[in-house]
Structures are given as C-alpha cells and as structure tokens.
Amino acid sequence: MKIVQQPQQVKLAMLIDADNAQPTKIEEILVEVAKHGKVIIKRAYGDWTKSNLNGWKKIVPQFAIDKIQQVAYTVGKNATDIGMTIDAMDLLYSKSSELDGVCLVSSDSDFTPLAIRIHKFSLSVYGFGEQKTPQAFVAACDRFIHTENLPPVPIKVKKAKKVKKAEKAEKNTTQHDGNTRLLNLLSNVIDTKWICLNVVGQQIIQQLPGFKPKNYGYNQLHKLITATKLFEMERRKSSIYVRAR
Predict the structure, then answer these.
(1) pLDDT for 2-42, tens place per residue?
(2) Mapped to the 3 state alphabet, what secondary structure does 223-240 carry?
(3) Which residues, at least 6 apart from 11, have a Cβ–Cβ distance to it below 8 Å?
(4) Roughly how many angstroms between the first and final C-alpha of the chain, as a whole number?
(5) Which pairs from 107-110 meet CB under 8 Å and 24+ separation?
(6) Which CATH class is domain 165-244?
(7) DSSP assignment of 131-146, as one string?
(8) Global pTM?
(9) Is the domain defined by 7-149 classed in CATH 3.40.225.10?
(10) Domain map of the chain by residue range?
(11) CB of 89 within 8 A of CB of 118?
C-alpha cells in the first residue's frame, strides 16, 4: 500500500527570482506552499546592492529568507537566472535525498529547463508567477499557481464574548481583531474540511516563526481561534480539530 505523505512531512526548497517576482505576494505564496509541504530552504536571488530590490530587502528578514547575491558582470545578461539555476543544481546534487520538491518563484520562461531537470531527480516542481508567465514554464511544473489568484482577504473579526473571568485579562490585551495578517493566514490554512489543530499550529509557525498565542492575548491556540468566531472546533480523543464555519 502506498503511503501518502502529510504536508508537514513533505520537505520543499523555495527559490525566488527576486528580479522578477513581486515581494508583496510572498506571504500569500508561503501560505499556499504550506499546504503542500514544509519549506526547509528559502532563498532569494538578485543583486542586493541595487535599488530595484528595495522592496525585497524589507521583506526577506520577516520570513527568514536567505539573500543570495548575484552580480551582473555584463550589461544585458541575466546573472540572477544563471546564478539561481547553478545554485539549484548544486542543491539537487547535494540535498536531493532530503527534498521532496522545489518551488520556483518567477514568471520567467528561462526556468523551463530547470523545472524539467528537477523532475529527473524525481522531485515535484511548484511554480509561482504572474498571468504573463509563458505556457512553456507553466507546463513544465507539476502545478503552477498564478499569484494574481492569491489575494489577501481582509477579515473583520467580531469581538469574543467574555464567558470566563479567567480569560478576561487575556482578552483585554488581545490584538487579534486588528491583525489582518494573522487572520488571512488562519483563513488560508483552515477551510471547510476538518484539520488537526496541531497541523494548523505547525503551518502558522512556518509563515510566522515567532508566533505565540500569548502575543495576541491568549495562552492557547484554540482560545485565540475561538475568539475570532470564524471557525468551529471538535475534540476527537486526545486531539482538537477545526474547520471554517
């Protein structure tokens, strides 16, 4: 019988063409990637001395993305594409046994041969790019997600009822009703199908490494999620399961 790996068991590498990809979409991309596996390598490639990457410079520290410097020695040549491809091959030969797939973030068709090559290592390829991405690159990926289809969904949260005196102090300092980023993440991780609360916690931490319920005024994750009034929970033996209402 074939054993199907759970998302938290699948190990992925994410390689970002910073010259081509949009920094404003990285959070939505990471949320989508978390549905397929755990990102153990996150790298963004470009000439970080140039002003055109200022948007990325502000983003990479927030998501623990490694900046890989690529210097354009010749005008008109895409050093980022070449450097990213070389690094990808080094990664495949050195760590292919540790990886289950690679995420390529770019709208550039120059990465089509790389996607095809990655398949030869029996790894899955997930592509992320804009609608303008050439069909050749889209077809070379096992799955290609257009970033325009990953918009943030602002959510207005209802205030939780103060049902227990022990929780009043926590709720007085809560920040959940003003944190759109956390709510967007919860809504992307939790849909209408039941999912184990432990898995939800793992996926949140992948995107927000410093996440703690206490930062939002609650001492446990299930209390924070309950306070949003957007989800319902069910206890099954020793585990809690949650889904969107």
Answers:
(1) 344 555 578 899 999 999 899 988 888 888 888 888 888 99
(2) HHHHHHCCEEEEEECCEE
(3) 37, 38, 40, 98, 99, 100, 101
(4) 35
(5) 107/20, 107/21, 107/132, 107/133, 107/137, 108/17, 108/20, 108/81, 108/133, 108/137, 109/133, 109/134, 109/136, 109/137, 110/78, 110/81
(6) alpha beta
(7) TTS-HHHHHHSSEEEE
(8) 0.67
(9) no
(10) 7-149, 165-244
(11) no
Please count the CA atoms within 13 angstroms of the CA of 212 that sit on its side-chain side. Answer: 5
Which residue reads 């948007």 in tokens?
A: 55
Long-range contacts of 154-157 (CB under 8 A, 24+ apart): 154/180, 154/184, 155/180, 155/183, 155/184, 155/187, 155/228, 155/230, 157/183, 157/227, 157/228, 157/229, 157/230
Tallying the residues shown for the chain, one arrives at: 245
